[in-house]
């Protein structure tokens, strides 16, 4: 790993990790699945190679939230930490909210706005996509 290494932890501190470097710019996802998994209107994500996600303390528990999609969380405090999709087997997404220095991974856009509630209309000027990012 290089100078792009970031660290993070869950709410209770039982799970700690290090990641890097980023594969894509961070994003804010507004899809229904992320909203329900996090109990929030959007979830910030950072994508890294699976090999570059290293647990340094504790263990994660996983839930297959839909076919081929695995969400991992701290088994003690329930904080959502990662997302894996079988269609992107070599990648893993990490929640921006669990980073020790989230300001080092500012989101550049909003995805899955077609799933966002009517009251969730970001005014930050970042690009907004109905589904994923444009190809």
Strand order of the biggest β-sheet: 6-7-8-9-4-3-10
State the secondary-structure class: mainly beta
What is the CATH architecture term? Beta Complex
- Uncertain residue segments: none
- Secondary structure: number of strands: 10
Overall pLDDT score? 96
> How many structural units, i.e. domains?
1
Query: Mind describing the biggest β-sheet?
Result: 7 strands, mixed
**Into which percent range does the helicity of residues fall?**
under 10%
Secondary-structure element order, as H and E?
EEEHEEEEEEE
Quick one: overall form? globular
| % residues in beta strands | 25-35%
Number of helices: 1
Tell me the CATH topology.
Metal Binding Protein, Guanine Nucleotide Exchange Factor, Chain A
Determine the N-to-C terminus distance. 27 Å
Structure description:
With 135 residues, the protein is mainly beta. It has a single domain (6-115), classed as Metal Binding Protein, Guanine Nucleotide Exchange Factor, Chain A. It is 5% helix and 35% strand. It has a seven-stranded mixed sheet with strand order 6-7-8-9-4-3-10, with helices on one face. The chain has a three-stranded antiparallel sheet with strand order 1-2-5, with no helix packed on it. Strand 8 (80-85) and strand 9 form a beta hairpin. The chain is globular and about 40 Å long. The mean pLDDT is 96.
